[in-house]
Write a structure and sequence with these properties.
The chain has 204 residues and is of the alpha/beta class. The protein has two domains: 5-128, Toll/interleukin-1 receptor homology (TIR) domain (Rossmann fold); 139-199, no CATH class. 26% of the residues lie in helices and 22% in strands. The protein is built from six helices and ten strands; from the N terminus they run βαβαβααββαββαβββ. It has helices spanning 15-22, 49-53, 64-67, 70-81, 113-128, 162-170, and strands at 5-9, 31-34, 57-62, 86-90, 106-107, 140-144, 153-157, 175-178, 185-188, 195-199. The longest helix is centred in the middle third of the chain and has 16 residues, at 113-128. It binds zinc ion. Zinc ion binds next to loops.
């Protein structure tokens, strides 16, 4: 099955915020394209239309800057016309208008990034599961083991439901993956799927 492609629309001024919010989404088995990230300064963003055309889902960060941004509106209009699912991340529900009127937004809480990322992951999961591209067996984070020269692929399988992940987060428990080669452990925040720490393999 072709890899699922996610396009992220945002105002230029919000590139850092978008990168931070999407950092763990980018570790999932998805192709994530952030508008403007690969554009050389001064080049038109419309060159990204090809990426948008091949996307399965669009995430839009709707801040003060983005609400009146020409490119964000162009990209949303295009996504809407193509019938792509859109997940708006909004500072304020007032931004759920125009192309995203009637769409549920993910609340953007800059003071509480873990909650924002958790809610974004939950929405992403519920949008993508029904179309089969991200059924639970495909919901994992894969990365190379960085213990010495090991380099084996480690996978953090995420079998739990979002509500169970949230409970773990509230109880301060981490998710753990072990390297199949050397046994090094890697622990992750259950709410954001962000990496927290590595644990040396047990001495034999
Ligand atoms: Zn290893």
């Amino acid at each position: 099955m072709a890899e699922t492609r996610v396009f992220v629309s945002h105002a230029t001024a919000d590139l850092d915020a978008a990168q931070n919010l999407l950092s763990s989404v980018r570790n999932l088995p998805l192709t994530v394209a952030l508008a403007g990230e690969e554009v050389e300064p001064g080049r038109a963003r419309r060159n990204l239309e090809g990426q948008l055309r091949n996307s399965d889902l669009v995430i839009v960060l709707l801040t003060d800057d983005a609400a009146d941004d020409y490119w964000v509106n162009q990209e949303l209009g295009y996504a809407k016309a193509k019938g792509l699912p859109i997940i708006p991340i909004v500072e304020d529900d007032d931004y759920l208008r125009g192309y995203v009127e009637g769409t549920d937004g993910v609340q953007y809480d800059a003071q509480n990034p873990e909650v924002t990322v958790f809610n974004l992951l939950s929405r992403l999961r519920s949008e993508l599961e029904p179309i089969g591209t991200l059924s639970s067996p495909n919901w994992y984070v894969a990365f190379p083991c960085n213990n010495g020269q090991c380099g084996a692929e480690v996978q953090l399988e995420i079998e739990r439901l979002q509500k169970d992940l949230w409970q773990r987060f509230e109880h301060g428990k981490l998710l753990r993956a072990n390297c199949p080669e050397c046994g090094a452990g890697y622990e992750f925040n259950p709410a954001t799927l962000g990496f927290v720490r590595s644990v040396a393999p047990e001495a034999e």
